[in-house]
Write a structure and sequence with these properties.
Largest sheet of chain C: 4 strands, mixed
Number of strands of chain A: 9
Oligomer: heterotrimer
CATH class of the largest domain in chain C: Mainly Alpha
Number of strands of chain C: 8
Strand content of chain A: 15-25%
CATH architecture of the largest domain in chain C: Up-down Bundle
CATH topology of the largest domain in chain A: Butyryl-CoA Dehydrogenase, subunit A, domain 3
Helix content of chain C: 40-55%
Structural class of chain C: alpha+beta
Radius of gyration of chain A: 21 Å
CATH superfamily of the largest domain in chain C: Butyryl-CoA Dehydrogenase, subunit A, domain 3
CATH class of the largest domain in chain A: Mainly Alpha
Shape of chain C: globular
Number of domains of chain A: 3
Order of helices and strands of chain C: HHHHHHEEEEEEEEHHHHHH
CATH architecture of the largest domain in chain A: Up-down Bundle
Strand content of chain C: 5-15%
Chains: A alpha+beta (about 375), B alpha+beta (about 375), C alpha+beta (about 375)
Shape of chain A: globular
Order of helices and strands of chain A: HHHHHHEEEEEEEEHHHHEHH
Number of domains of chain C: 3
Strand order of the largest sheet of chain C: 1-4-5-8
CATH topology of the largest domain in chain C: Butyryl-CoA Dehydrogenase, subunit A, domain 3
CATH superfamily of the largest domain in chain A: Butyryl-CoA Dehydrogenase, subunit A, domain 3
Largest interface: A-B, 47 and 42 residues
Radius of gyration of chain C: 21 Å
């Protein structure tokens, strides 16, 4: 066992860093560094820059257009993005629907969608949760009935992140209400421009518009937009959620937050012993988590298609540390952080985003499978309770 | 010592509860935010005697005690009032303890009637909760003073009629001597106010004073010796905030418990899961600790030993800060997604508590003060 | 609500202090301030001194020898005794079985036992928990079979604190196996010298002997030693457990620990370290809040307001966790020397700190574990 990076890996890190330094537009870099909301076109622009280099889909195998990186390289790449800081490739596209399609999709679906996913020609969102199906996702009720060579979908989805920007939604629907809940679920790909699709914003306490409700009213979905077999959607879901979990620790983002907090504290004459102790505690936690992440990813090398339940550790610890880091920055900013501004007011003081981001991150322990559910998974799947 | 409310206290609490029930709705508040705050509500506060409460009865006040203030702030808290109650009622009354007869006669009646609102303009850029860190200057001119300096983020400063401004008449930036307190006319020549919105829905202003003339009759207490008064004012503010925090935390806990009992997942209410029960229990523990300290604050405001009193109020702010952070965060967590929506009140209570943490010194500042 | 302090209470505190100065032997105080378990000799001697002053059972009803003090004064008295290093009186006797006898006992039982307890003549031990009945106490199995004018008791109790000092034991036994568990339990007073009783020490993590197992092998107990009716034992037990929580001396004990922590920090040069100082400050702030919580609970005890919040459980959770936090910081303050195992007779100023810290791991387990306490609090909030 050797925890040090090889020379090749170090060279790779340098290469990534240089690429970001030279190709990330300064305006986008500044916005991410100041915690400001990015516009759709800014996110698309950056992903296309990465895609040109072949780097928009770090975890995809070569045969589907991925760079064929090792687990360590993938991790280094994301870490560099987080610490630059630069935007990640769009997670819904690259971590969720992309791997689902190349694992469970038909050839036609792969050819039709995968390149557009990588290049962010199509922006995808996740149609899973419903008002009555959050942690208990299997209780979902949006229904699809067969009508010739289409499904007709009726129902309501909630919490669609960036749904208002989306072109397509990968959606879970109920196709059989007579069996056990998990056994009657199907995954459909829905074109957001279809008649009957209505998107309504949900305003969140961070003052930003990120999530939405999506109403589906007699929406016609062609059969060839079904992923996998009818009523076999739950297995695909478990696969997808497992992937979502692994990527969610975002350790580099937490490190960047701590760095920012320390800088702000120094500026504000607030970096006394107590502050430094708090910062140290978070940094140490992040260091430990980095290694845990490497171990989990390493263990998954052999079985890339079977997510390791220990990735729940990454989710719980990762989100708690990120929340702690945002809190540290809030403390450092002091009274100035009470100010707020509009979401896209790029001229507003840096201080206005500090509390917004702290508020946004309160949801991190809720989404992606709440931390309580993650602990249930650990207790059951790892400890056998 | 006893903790049961007497008849007068009960009546006060009831009248505030009625006001909250009738006019303190969450949707109504949203409408009021467009104008900053509601003048109608302010008139109601005046009507039921809240504004007059802590002021001396010799000038139209009601000689209210610290417990009375505590009851008002705790009861109003969940309605998330946007109005300038803290500076007008609590800070004003604390400051005017050192006012002259003439000043009391001039200011208390209009305050009590709801015709004069105040804002507290003391903190400066870089002062970071240190009460003696004042750079804003005041020089003598004739019988009055001329003020120059910046007072950023003055809560309610955008709409206040008068500003309680601290400025240095002598000495260097962090000297304990040399500070004076002025009751400035906010519309005086030379006062520039730039509105700022806060995350908890209230408004503030960045204020710039340029050659602002203040007559001698608007100086409170002895110029150059205002720091002890400023420290007392901060202590009164902390006590009121502690009561407000307890009211918010109680609301958060009540709402969370209701949610745990009614939200159905996995075939039953989620409150049946032991992990969530324990979390709710921990929230209750944190709440009761905070409540105890809010009561302690009310008692210690009258402590004659300055060092003891300061220490006690620092302890209060620490406990409140720790409990509030825990309860607020857990309330959102236990509500799942809806906890972070703008539509639902829980997030707004949480944001108010978050902003409150940085008012009058945060937890770390007071821990350091306490352990000096 | 009136929060001002009564000057008469301050005068009372002075009176107690003066008494302690005169009556508490300095060597006894020294021994008890160190953090080891109190000896029977010390506990008994001190009880007799208190009794001579009429102060051995302040919380008892006046008709049984209590002082009639307000809850606040009882609290102040306890605080001063703790601070001075007075040993405790026998908790099982004064605070556990005595209130049960006062509430559920016959006049004969009260006459027989209460004066002897009050004088410090008899020590008692609690026979509740069993190897298979801890948090789930109602599942206890020690049997008591009726045989004429006696019960014959067979079974085993565990975790009996100071059982080896005890003259008498009060035990929960099963008298009926045909009904629901709680309804088949009875409360028996058992002479510890009865034939068939064997008491075996349990050495705890601090290396000391405080706890015991008690074995009952055909022990004959006169029926008149049953408290309350047959099947009423669970009611007596619930009453006892609630009292145990309400009278737990969390604040005085925590104050004494904090005082020791500050003294040690000063001696080690740690008080000047701003980070260590803020850690002490955090404890002090929590303790202030705990004290005020206690005062609120005391002022409401016995009144209508008392049921509105689960005070006993809250105090137990907070007080126990604070003790552990303070104990851990005490050990930390010792630095390298924290690992030394001292004897109870060792006069070193550090003696007893680590032992106390280790034993105090139990403080969140006994008297109803903190998990159980949280269940009770949650049930209060969420309903059954």
């Amino acid at each position: 066992m050797d925890l040090r990076f090889t020379d090749d890996e170090l060279a790779f890190r340098a290469e990534v860093r240089e690429f970001i330094r030279t190709r990330l537009p300064e305006a986008i870099h500044r916005k991410v560094a100041e915690g400001r909301a990015l516009r759709k076109d800014e996110i698309v622009q950056w992903q296309r820059t990465l895609n040109e280099k072949g780097w928009a889909t770090p975890s995809w195998p070569r045969e589907h257009g991925g760079p064929g990186w090792s687990v360590v390289q993938r991790w280094i790449f994301l870490d560099e993005l987080h610490q630059a800081p630069a935007p990640e490739p769009l997670s819904f596209n690259v971590n969720m629907i992309g791997p689902v399609l190349f694992t469970f999709g038909t050839e036609a679906q792969k050819q039709r969608f995968l390149p557009r996913i990588a290049n962010l020609d199509d922006w995808w969102c996740q149609g899973f949760s419903e008002p009555g199906a959050g942690s208990d996702l299997a209780a979902l009720k949006a229904a699809a009935r067969r009508d010739g060579d289409h499904y007709i979908v009726n129902g309501q989805k909630a919490w669609q992140g960036m749904g208002h920007c989306a072109d397509w939604m990968f959606t879970l629907v109920r196709t059989d209400a007579s069996v056990k809940p998990q056994a009657g679920i199907t995954m459909l790909l829905i074109d957001m421009r279809s008649p009957g699709v209505t998107v309504r914003p949900i305003h969140t306490i961070d003052g930003r518009h990120e999530v939405n409700e999506v109403f589906l009213d007699g929406v016609r979905v062609p059969l060839d937009c079904r992923v996998g077999d009818e009523n076999k959607g739950w297995d695909i879901t478990k696969f997808l959620l497992g992937n979502e979990r692994t990527g969610i620790a975002r350790i580099g983002m937490s490190k960047e937050l701590v760095r920012r907090a320390k800088a702000v504290a120094a500026q504000n004459d607030a970096d006394d012993g107590r502050f430094r102790e708090r910062a140290a505690a978070i940094e140490i936690g992040l260091k430990a988590l980095e290694i845990t992440q490497m171990r989990v990813l390493d263990g998954m090398r052999e079985h890339a298609d079977k997510p390791d339940p220990r990735s729940s550790i990454l989710k719980v610890q990762g989100t708690e540390l990120r929340q702690a880091a945002s809190e540290l920055l809030l403390r450092a900013a002091g009274p100035a952080a009470a100010q707020c501004a509009d979401e896209f007011d790029d001229a507003s003081s840096w201080a206005t985003t500090v509390a917004s981001n702290y508020f946004t991150l309160r949801a991190a322990s809720v989404y992606g499978g709440s931390n309580e559910v993650q602990k249930n998974i650990l207790a059951k799947a790892v400890l056998g309770l | 010592m006893n903790f049961a409310l007497d008849d007068d206290q009960r009546m006060l609490k009831d009248s505030v509860e009625r006001l909250v029930a009738r006019d303190g709705g969450f949707e109504q508040r949203r409408l009021h935010m467009a104008d900053g705050w509601s003048r109608t509500l302010w008139a109601r506060y005046a009507e039921i005697g809240l504004l007059a409460l802590p002021y001396p009865s010799t000038h139209g006040g009601l000689n209210g005690t610290a417990v009375d203030t505590l009851l008002v702030f705790e009861t109003l808290a969940r309605a998330l009032p946007l109005e300038p109650l803290l500076p007008t009622m609590v800070i004003g009354a604390a400051a005017l303890r050192e006012a002259s007869e003439e000043q009391l006669a001039r200011w208390v009646p209009p305050i009590a009637a709801g015709e004069l609102t105040l804002a507290w303009a003391h903190g400066e850029a870089g002062s970071r909760y240190r009460l003696h860190d004042v750079s804003c200057r005041a020089r003598r001119e004739g019988a009055g003073w001329v003020l120059d300096g910046d007072k950023p983020l003055v809560v309610h400063g955008d709409s206040a009629d008068r500003l309680l401004v601290s400025a240095r008449v002598s000495g260097e930036r962090c000297d304990r001597d040399g500070i004076a307190l002025f009751m400035l006319d906010a519309n005086a020549l030379g006062v520039a106010r730039r509105g700022v919105r806060l995350h908890d829905g209230r408004r503030a202003a960045d204020i710039v004073l340029e050659g602002v003339y203040v007559p001698a009759s608007d100086v409170i207490g002895e110029p150059g010796k205002a720091l002890p008064l400023i420290e007392r004012i901060a202590q009164h503010a902390i006590a009121a905030l502690a009561a407000e925090a307890v009211g918010l935390m109680q609301a958060l806990l009540d709402t969370t418990v209701d949610y745990l009992k009614t939200r159905q997942q996995f075939g039953g209410p989620i409150g049946r899961f032991q992990a969530l029960q324990h979390r709710a229990a921990e929230m209750l523990i944190a709440l009761e600790q905070a409540r105890s300290m809010a009561l302690y604050a009310a008692l210690m405001l009258d402590e004659p030993d300055d060092a003891e009193r300061a220490k006690a109020l620092s302890a209060v702010k620490v406990q409140i800060g720790q409990s509030a952070r825990f309860i607020g965060q857990q309330a959102i967590q236990l509500h799942g997604g809806i906890g972070v929506t703008d539509e639902y009140v829980v997030g707004h209570w949480f944001k108010r508590l978050t902003v409150m943490e940085s008012e009058f010194g945060d937890t770390d500042h007071h821990l350091a003060e306490f352990s000096r | 609500m009136h929060l001002e302090r009564d000057p008469a209470d301050a005068a009372f505190r002075e009176e107690v202090r003066a008494f302690l100065r005169d009556a508490l032997p300095p060597d006894m105080a020294q021994r008890n301030l160190r953090g080891f378990h109190p000896t029977k000799a010390d506990m008994q001697a001190w009880t007799r001194i208190l009794h001579a002053r009429g102060w051995s059972a302040p919380h008892w009803p006046v008709e049984h020898g209590g002082t009639g003090w307000s809850p606040l004064r009882r609290h102040l008295f306890e605080e001063e005794c703790f601070a001075a290093g007075a040993p405790p009186t026998c908790t099982a006797a004064f605070s556990l079985v005595a209130p049960v006898l006062q509430r559920f006992g016959t006049p004969e039982q009260q006459q027989r036992h209460l004066p002897a307890i009050l004088r410090g003549d008899t020590f008692w031990g609690q026979g509740f928990s069993e190897p298979n009945a801890g948090s789930d106490l109602a599942s206890l199995r020690t049997r008591a079979l009726r045989d004429g004018e006696h019960y014959v008791v067979d079974g085993q109790k565990t975790w009996t604190t100071e059982g080896h000092y005890a003259d008498w034991l009060f035990c929960l036994v099963r008298t009926d196996t045909t009904v629901a568990p709680q309804r088949g339990i009875s409360f028996l007073l058992i002479d510890a010298r009865s034939p068939g009783i064997t008491i075996r020490p349990i050495i705890s993590i601090d290396g000391a002997h405080s706890l015991n197992e008690v074995f009952f092998d055909g022990v004959r107990v006169p029926v008149e030693n049953r408290v309350g009716d047959e099947g009423q034992g669970w009611t007596c037990a619930k009453f006892l457990l609630e009292n145990e929580r309400a009278f737990s001396a969390e604040v005085p004990r925590n104050k004494r620990m904090l005082a020791r922590l500050k003294a040690l920090a000063a001696a080690q040069g740690l008080a000047a370290d701003p980070v260590f100082a803020t850690r002490i400050a955090e404890i002090e702030v929590e303790l202030a809040a705990l004290e005020w919580l206690t005062l609120r609970a005391l002022s409401e005890h016995g009144s209508d307001a008392a049921g509105a919040w689960p005070a006993g459980s809250l105090l137990h959770v907070l007080g126990s966790e604070l003790q552990q936090k303070t104990g851990a910081l005490l050990v930390e303050a010792l630095g390298e020397r924290g690992v030394i195992h001292y004897d109870a007779s060792d006069a070193d100023h550090a003696a007893g700190i680590t032992a106390d810290f280790l034993y105090r791991r139990a403080v969140t387990i006994y008297g109803g574990s903190n998990e159980i306490q949280r269940n009770l609090i949650a049930r209060h909030l969420l309903g059954p």
